[in-house]
Amino acid sequence: MTITELYNRMCDKNFQDPATGNLFSNAYMYLYDSTQENQIRNEIQTIKERLIRPDVYQDILILDIFELFCQHLKQKKFGQKTLFDFFLEREAETPDKVNDSLVREAKSNDFFAFINQNIKEHLNTEGENKKSYVTIHGFGAIFPYLRTSKFISNFEKYFIGEKYKLIIFYPGEVKDFYSLFNLLNDEHPYRAIKLIS
Known about the structure:
This protein is of the alpha/beta class. It has helices spanning about 5-10, 15, 35-50, 65-75, 85-90, 95-105, 110-125, 140, 150-160, and strands spanning about 25-30, 60-65, 75-80, 80, 135, 165-175, 180, 185, 195. The strands form 2 sheets. Strands 1, 2, 5, 6, 7, 8 and 9 form a 7-stranded mixed beta sheet that branches. Strands 3-4 form a two-stranded antiparallel sheet. Strand 6 (about 165-175) and strand 7 form a beta hairpin. Helix 7 packs across helix 9.
């Protein structure tokens, strides 16, 4: 699926309805070549600007999961410091311990609740535009702390039954399994629906 086809799908009134699609999940994956990362980020912003126009009235939320993770660490206190500052200070002397701590924190309930809080704040803002989509990217940047499959399985309890569709931008491909950057095989297939034309 090209980015233009994705935009056209998101304009479709039937697809905008969160009740349409798979009975088990309202998460979708858009696969793209990881060498096009910067172009895709720009295209996501362009899609947002085009969807908010009067003919569509869709106000989509764009989330960068790596940036959200950094924000989460910066707002979480650890003694007199933030967790973000603590990890930065310790990284040079104990890189393995910091890495293990970052992996635990990226998979923590606190982090997923923080993501959900950001989404809820967007959905609850006043305005005439509909809020049918939440897009999320940055899975190449947050790797190896959090795999996309782990994100979906841990975040599923927040988005199942919600009134929005989650569109995950994934820098990789799928054959018999999902492959991040077309190099790293993931633990298991994702529950998200692969977007195809």
